[in-house]
């Protein structure tokens, strides 16, 4: 990635992982141009900005497993723009705003931006406050639980995921599989290893009943990894090795280079 700055002919390498050019405009450009636009033009431009960054966030999440160094360098560079766009999308209640927040939260968690993640989760909850038991409600509460889990508040996260579990359909579905896995992590974080193992195995049992899609297979590999790590800690090395090998096979078939390495 090369950095181009208005009024500066010098170019310097920003990241060895990204070859695409990055254009940085002078900070006075937008404030100078914005008032010259009509209100209709401002509205249309803001909508395009939100949609563009929503599309970018979806693409980055999709490619994160294949080329994480490349993707995360871009996400790190664009994180402020992503946050501004997702906050506006939630404010105007775009129909895809909650999904947008899920994509952005993925990278906030990776980068350790927990304060920004917490603020975003609160915005999502506010935007979905009247949508109890909807998919958006699930995303909002799941994001809250993931934030608590990532910051080591295992018991609080457990309460959130147990509430989600109570409201989910009992028939096999992706959300049920993922929630059981996250509950397992909460229990493992509290040293309740047997209960955690039970949740991981329940999650895998649900996944085996779902249609074999890439996202389901990727989730199964994630759960297998959590199970294998737990079995290793318990000294059950033979079963841990079996779980690791199953995980590796899935990641290789899906070309998830980050997970393989």
Could you describe the 3D structure shown?
The chain is built from 12 helices and 3 strands. Strands 2-1-3 form a 3-stranded mixed sheet, with no helix packed on it. Strand 1 and strand 2 form a beta hairpin. By secondary structure, it is mainly α. It has 2 domains: 37-143; 152-261, Serine Threonine Protein Phosphatase 5, Tetratricopeptide repeat, CATH 1.25.40.10.
Quaternary class: single chain
The unreliable regions are: 1-14
Largest sheet: 3 strands, mixed
Assigned CATH architecture of the largest domain: Alpha Horseshoe
Number of domains: 2
Indicate the mean pLDDT.
85
Total of DSSP H or I helical runs spanning 4+ residues: 12
CATH superfamily of the largest domain: Tetratricopeptide repeat domain
End-to-end span in angstroms?
24 Å
Total DSSP E strands: 3
Shape: globular
- Widest sheet, order of strands: 2-1-3
Q: What's the CATH first level of the largest domain?
A: Mainly Alpha
Percent range for β-strand residues: 5-15%
Radius of gyration (CA) equals: 21 Å
CATH topology-level name of the largest domain: Serine Threonine Protein Phosphatase 5, Tetratricopeptide repeat
Helix residue percentage: over 70%
Which series of helices and strands comes N to C? EEEHHHHHHHHHHHH
Class per helix and strand makeup? mainly alpha
């Amino acid at each position: 990635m090369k950095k181009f700055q208005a009024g500066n002919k010098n170019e310097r390498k920003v990241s060895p992982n990204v070859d695409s050019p990055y254009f940085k405009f002078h900070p006075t450009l937008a404030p100078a141009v914005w008032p010259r636009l009509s209100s209709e033009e401002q509205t249309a431009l803001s909508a395009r900005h939100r949609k563009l960054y929503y599309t970018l966030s979806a693409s980055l999440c999709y490619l994160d497993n294949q080329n994480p160094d490349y993707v995360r360098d871009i996400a790190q560079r664009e994180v402020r723009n992503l946050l501004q766009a997702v906050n506006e999308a939630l404010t105007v209640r775009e129909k895809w705003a909650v999904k947008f927040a899920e994509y952005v939260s993925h990278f906030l968690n990776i980068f350790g931006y927990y304060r920004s993640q917490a603020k975003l989760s609160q915005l999502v909850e506010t935007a979905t406050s009247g949508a109890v038991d909807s998919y958006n409600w699930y995303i909002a509460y799941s994001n809250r639980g993931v934030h608590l889990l990532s910051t080591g508040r295992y018991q609080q996260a457990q309460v959130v995921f147990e509430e989600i579990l109570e409201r989910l359909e009992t028939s096999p579905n992706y959300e049920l599989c993922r929630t059981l896995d996250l509950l397992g992590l909460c229990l493992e974080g509290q040293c309740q290893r047997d209960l955690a193992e039970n949740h991981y195995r329940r999650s895998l049992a649900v996944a085996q009943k779902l249609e074999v899609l890439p996202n389901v297979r990727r989730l199964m590999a994630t759960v297998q990894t959590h199970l294998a790590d737990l079995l290793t800690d318990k000294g059950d090395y033979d079963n841990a090795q079996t779980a690791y090998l199953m995980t590796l096979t899935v990641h290789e078939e899906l070309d998830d280079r980050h997970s393989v390495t």
